[in-house]
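Example 9 (inverse folding). The structure is encoded as follows.
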């Protein structure tokens, strides 16, 4: 089977989510990549070095500069003429592109796969991860999004894929890039961080969130996350949200501060290797998944912990 993997990049380097997606694709067959963007020579060269990659298709055109799904999907649909499976990471961009590809080539998308059971069957979470379904498709071509925390990352070095330019399909003129407001941070990216410190509604305000969570995260070299309640209350930006409707993370250590452990939050972090929970309520559901639990008032405990780290 010939697979095509969407390369998620920032214009300069390949994002880690791509590496896990390559591993998923390698379980199906030959791995080809698609790098779409503008001025993406460096990305294509880096992508070609990923272990196990056979070919890197490069579509370098202004129409792909901001990975607008409306422009990228027709390009991928065209490449699916000679590929059997398209795989994208379950990231915001991947989830924007893949369903459009599925619609264009008239197949069903299988979302958020956790494992490859065979050439046409996969496991995926349902009910916010409380049950795992095995799904089998009779479609001739596959469109899959991949839960990247469920697959090991392919080695970023060691491959020698052939880089091949592909013709651009142009601007679909259905959408226009207006601008991007990016939260600049020196901290690691949430989905690839080894340690995450997340804050919940209990922080009480944006000021307190940053005053307590940021110093602990900085001492630990951690990324900062948040519950949806904290995001909805404006304590933390939207892209900090961990959970069913936020980011899915599985760091080495996840520190949940003042987070109750609602099922939708657990759906995004319960695969973390070590979970540390700080909560004043000893019956909080977060303690059911925590490896280390600290019952106490976060306003006392967190500054003390930060000082001692
Ligand atoms: C469709 C849907 C999707 C959702 N998606 C997500 C999602 O992606 N991510 C997500 O997080 N939620 C999500 N939610 C919301 C989720 O159900 C919860 O409402 C949310 O996670 C609660 O956030 P919280 O734990 O910060 O707040 P709360 O539930 O209010 O918990 C606050 C916790 O802090 C503790 N606390 C209070 N004061 C202190 C103190 N001084 N010291 C120590 N501990 C203290 C309390 O004991 C409590 O356990 C979703 C809900 C729905 C319906």
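The amino acid assigned to each position is listed next.
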């Amino acid at each position: 089977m010939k697979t095509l993997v969407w390369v998620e990049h920032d214009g300069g380097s390949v994002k880690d989510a791509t590496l896990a997606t390559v591993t998923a694709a390698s379980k199906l067959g030959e791995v080809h990549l698609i790098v779409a963007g503008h001025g993406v020579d460096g990305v294509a060269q880096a992508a070609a070095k990923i272990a196990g990659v056979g070919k890197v298709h490069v579509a370098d055109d202004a129409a792909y500069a901001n990975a607008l799904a409306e422009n990228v999907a027709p390009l991928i649909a065209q490449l699916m003429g000679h590929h059997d499976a398209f795989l994208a990471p379950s990231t915001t961009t991947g989830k924007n592109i893949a369903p459009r590809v599925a619609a264009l080539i008239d197949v069903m998308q299988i979302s958020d796969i956790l494992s490859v059971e065979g050439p046409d069957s996969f496991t995926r979470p349902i009910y916010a991860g409380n049950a795992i379904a095995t799904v089998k498709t009779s479609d001739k071509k596959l469109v899959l999004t991949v839960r990247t925390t469920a697959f090991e990352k392919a080695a970023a070095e060691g491959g020698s894929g052939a880089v091949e330019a592909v013709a651009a399909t142009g601007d679909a003129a259905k959408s226009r890039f207006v601008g991007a407001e990016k939260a600049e941070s020196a901290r690691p990216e949430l989905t690839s961080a080894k340690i995450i410190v997340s804050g919940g509604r209990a922080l009480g305000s944006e000021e307190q969130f940053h005053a307590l969570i940021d110093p602990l995260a900085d001492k630990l070299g951690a990324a900062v996350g948040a519950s949806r309640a904290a995001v909805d209350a404006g304590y933390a930006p939207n892209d900090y949200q961990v959970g069913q409707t936020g980011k899915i993370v599985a760091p080495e250590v996840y520190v949940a501060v003042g987070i109750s452990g609602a099922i939708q939050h657990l759906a995004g972090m319960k695969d973390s290797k070590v979970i540390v929970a700080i909560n004043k309520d000893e019956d909080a559901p977060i303690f059911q998944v925590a490896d280390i639990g600290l019952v106490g008032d976060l306003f006392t405990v967190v500054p003390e912990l930060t000082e001692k780290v």
